[in-house]
Amino acid sequence: MNDSLTEELRQLNAELDGLWLLRKMGFTDEAMYQEENIIRVFCPIHKDLVRKSLIVDLEKKEFSCQYAQCDAHAGGLLVELYARFMDIELGQVREHLFGEEAPDKELIQKADALIQEGKLYEALPLLEKALKISPRNCITRCKLAALYLELGKRQQGIQEYFRAAEDYGVLGELQKTLGIYNILIILSPVDIKVHKRLAYLYSRLGECHEAVEQLKWVVNKLLQDNQLKKAMEECQEMIALDPTEPSSHQILARVLIKSGQMVEGVAALELSGNLYLKRREKTEAEKVAREALRYVPNSPTLQDLLARARASEESEIAKDSAEMAKEAEFADWVKDLEESISVAAPVQKPDTTEISATDRRVLLCKKSLKGIDKEHLVSLHKHLVNMFSEVKQTYEGGLLEKWELKIVKEFYKAFCIALEQYKKEQGITTNF
Question: SS3 sequence, 53-112?
Fold first, then answer.
């Protein structure tokens, strides 16, 4: 606690309601765990997304973080927490909390007007200044990220989206966090950090299947980089999320075999094959059985697995109607992109940006796809289809303005073009 706090600040602190303050900071009710006069939240100082380490004492009107390495570990009064969270001086706390108008509002309005006029470079310093005034304003940060992308500053745009996603995650705004990570998947599809964060986020949302799909990307990338120990840890996490997912055991088998644990690897393949059969996925079960028999050709149990896979019904499980509807809506949306994005002479205004096969964004996206094989391309396509509806919800929920969505859509279109180019160049054929 700061002994040099003025009497005025101490009085302000005494008047504050801790629950009201946390809500003012942006924490949702779902993000707060309360036991009598104690509230626990994810720490916004070191941006903990694993455990709720920040403790707020409503009676004493104090806070502290349980993580010893956090700057908030020593604790202090609630006014100090707010000042640290907002990155402002203690003397500005009252104005920030009770001022009639946000100090960054005028700058944001001017920036938005300039963007609508196509004056992007003039808008940039205004958004940067607004964010310095209110660094926890996630909406402004997303605006700045989109503007960076439009001006060709891809890495800076990615960094700002990451920061916004982290802040939303700490505050418990999980759907908004998801919307941003979906944008990041387009911008950086092979980034382990993005897939790890998405996996954790999906697990918090109770969507275990989606979490597993993201962790598969992580494991395969770790395998490519020969980081077998880390790959094993991720496999165990996948299986813990959903023990009945056959592909998780299949991937674990590859890690085990590559690590020299042949017996355990073959056992994991056998389990995977049996799980595929329970799902009536005959083709996958047969593939797994054949893969296992390469290592133990005389195994009676594996030969039996292969025989049962061959005897299974010929027809594979059809996609359910909801998934087919998703695919159709996605296809319509991509077609709409081609019609809505102008191919006339390019102007600086976002809604008339040209997307061609040689557009810088297409080249950037194609570069990010380097090294991705057919299996991962199919997985990426599935995620893009699911992501489509989530990005729409992000826009409809007010996180993105129309011009921001347009920039994201243009990157999406560029990514689709890059994906087709990459498939042709690599000789990869898929059914999408």
Answer: CEEEECCCCEEEECCCCCCCCCCEEHHHHHHHHHCCCHHHHHHHHHCCCCCCHHHHHHHH
pLDDT of residue 351: 39
* DSSP conformational letter for 206: T
Q: What's the rounded Cα separation, in Å, for the pair 94 and 248?
A: 53
For residue 328, the model assigns a pLDDT of 63
What pLDDT does residue 3 have?
61
For 38, the 3-state DSSP assignment is strand
Burial of 173 (0-12, 13-18, 19+ CB in 10 A): buried
For the domain spanning 7-98, the CATH number is 3.90.580.10
H/E run at residue 40: strand 38-41
**253 close to 265: Cβ distance less than 8 angstroms:** yes
**Boundaries of every domain in the chain:** 7-98, 207-316, 332-426
Q: How many CB atoms lie within 10 A of CB 242?
A: 15
In whole angstroms, give the CA distance from residue 210 to residue 277: 21
Judged by DSSP in three states, 41 sits in: strand
Give the integer Cα–Cα distance in Å for 121 and 11: 44
pTM assigned to the model: 0.73
Of the CA atoms within 13 Å of residue 62, those in its CB half-sphere come to 9
Q: What is the pLDDT of residue 307?
A: 92
- 423 vs 409: CA distance, rounded Å: 21
Helical (H) or strand (E) element with 286 = helix 282-295
pLDDT lower than 70: segments of the chain: 1-3, 100-102, 312-354, 375, 379, 382-399, 431-432
Tokens of 347: 């102007």
Structure tokens at 406: 């347009």
* CB neighbours of residue 42 within 10 Å: 21
For the chain, the straight-line distance linking the first and the last C-alpha, in angstroms and rounded, comes to: 60
Strand order in the sheet with 62-65: 33-35, 38-41, 54-57, 62-65, 76-77
- Tokens for 197, please give them: 């964060």
Whole-number Å distance between alpha carbons of 406 and 397 = 16
Tokens representing 349 are 């205004």
* 207-316: CATH number: 1.25.40.10
CA 5 to chain centre: 40
What does residue 40 show for φ and ψ, rounded to 5 degrees?
Answer: -115, 135
